[in-house]
Amino acid sequence: MKIGIPRSLLYYYYYPFWQTLFKELGMELILSEANSGDLLNQGAKEAVPEICVPMKVYVGQVLNLLEKGVELIYIPRFVSIRKGITFCPKFLGLPDMLMNSLSGLDGKILTHEIRSRTDDISAYRNYALFRELFQVSKSKLSRALKAARRDWLEFRKLQQEGYKTEKLLQGEKEKRAEGSLKIGVLAYVYNLYDRYINMDFLERLEEKGVKLVSFEMLDEDLINKFIAKLRKPFFWEFTNKLMAAGHYFINSAEIDGIIHLTAFACGPDAILGPFLDLEAQGKNKPFMTLRIDEQTGESHFLTRIEAFVDLLSLKKRSDQT
Ligand code: SF4
Question: What CATH number belongs to 176-320?
Fold first, then answer.
């Protein structure tokens, strides 16, 4: 059976898990094409207009998989991976939003709820429906989940050791280069690793001698301990992860500045961004917000990155003299 996976949203966090799981179950995996102007335009045309850009990207990716003739498209409903915290509402309603806005999806969506206490999503109960659907035994499904967990944990370990996520997702290993400046990036993985939507943000900074650090590269214990201590955490899982990373970046002497890379129409970021910006101001840590949408002009984007890097270089030099 051909199963399609949209190359968007949590593909950038859980693909190694899904890749092994479906392979072990004997399925053929088809990935949608890398994001492009055409795919994004198609997604924006078909999606509900008020939705955020990453969701428009996702719609374009689903349409691409339909064109590729897959039998099922895997769209899990991420509910929670931490006690008392859920995902952003757009994740919660994702399968319904697609079902109700796109034609041609009848009987083609493979969905189920993901509920877990940690980022490890391998609990058998989440996948019990796969047994009947794929006609596999309980032990085969358990073995597949165990193998998927092993490969995902390895992926997470390599991310934390400084290997590039974008390469790991392609099955390659390459370490992120050291740089003369270190910038903490506050960004959801689907904004940080989608080269089209962020106009090669990572490469542009690396070319300028910047080493980037984002939440998934930090020690998970550090993130979890911070979230556990919050008196009033956000309702949304990945927003809390960014909050924890932001707090770490602001207080770390190793981080020269912070960029909040956010998407147009992101409700959670509209609260998170100003909150961290204020905290950064209080600690004299340079902070810049870059907003991406389907119309962001490349030259404006680049000018702002260059100006920020120049400012950080000047500040670093003057701090050292
Ligand atoms: S967190 Fe923001 S960018 Fe991500 S899905 Fe929700 S609204 Fe969209």
Answer: 3.40.50.11900
**Which residue's CA is the nearest one to ligand 1's atom 6?**
88
User: Which residues face 127 on adjacent strands?
Assistant: none
Domain boundaries, the chain: 2-160, 176-320
For the domain spanning 2-160, the CATH number is 3.40.50
Burial of 200 (0-12, 13-18, 19+ CB in 10 A): middle
Q: How far is CA 101 from CA 4, 60, 142, in A?
A: 19, 12, 35
Rounded to the nearest whole angstrom, what is the distance from the C-alpha of residue 103 to the centroid of ligand 1? 24
**Which ligand 1 atom minimizes the distance to the CA of 88?**
6
162 CA → ligand 1 middle, Å: 26
**Alpha carbon 82 to chain centroid distance?**
17
Report whether 179 contacts 309 (CB < 8 A): no
**What are 38-93's pLDDT values in tens digits?**
999 999 999 988 899 999 999 999 999 999 999 999 999 999 999 999 999 999 99
pLDDT in tens, 152-187: 999 999 999 999 999 999 999 999 988 899 999 999
Phi/psi region, residue 9 (left: phi>0; alpha: psi -120 to 50; beta: rest), is left
Could you tell me if 108 and 66 are in contact, meaning their C-beta atoms sit under 8 angstroms apart? yes
Q: What is the DSSP letter of 295?
A: T
The pLDDT of residue 97 is 93
